[in-house]
């Protein structure tokens, strides 16, 4: 089976930065109080950071069983965080329309 951990680490770290930019821009424009955008982006930040952590652990461990476990945890955390970002994008789209 191909190792997914390096791909998860790369994508999670990039989307973590994207989520932080969302939160920062919402705070600067003072929009964060009127929507749930910053909550979704904040949850996504935490989940992406945890996904980065577990994918890094999967890369660094030498135990095959632990590597698979860490990789699966990172994968699921990444998926949930991605769902939070999609919700944030939907909220922005609805707000603009």
Automatic annotation (TrEMBL):
Superkingdom of origin organism: Bacteria
Transmembrane segments annotated in the record for this chain: 7-28, 40-61, 73-96
Keywords: Membrane, Transmembrane, Transmembrane helix
Protein name: DUF202 domain-containing protein
């Amino acid at each position: 089976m191909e190792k997914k951990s390096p791909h998860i680490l790369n994508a999670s770290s990039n989307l973590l930065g994207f989520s932080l930019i969302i939160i920062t821009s919402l705070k600067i424009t003072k929009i964060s109080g009127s929507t749930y955008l910053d909550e979704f982006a904040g949850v996504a930040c935490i989940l992406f950071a945890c996904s980065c952590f577990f994918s890094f652990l999967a890369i660094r461990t030498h135990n095959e069983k632990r590597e698979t476990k860490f990789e699966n945890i990172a994968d699921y955390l990444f998926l949930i965080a991605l769902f939070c970002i999609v919700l944030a994008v939907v909220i922005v789209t609805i707000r603009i329309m």
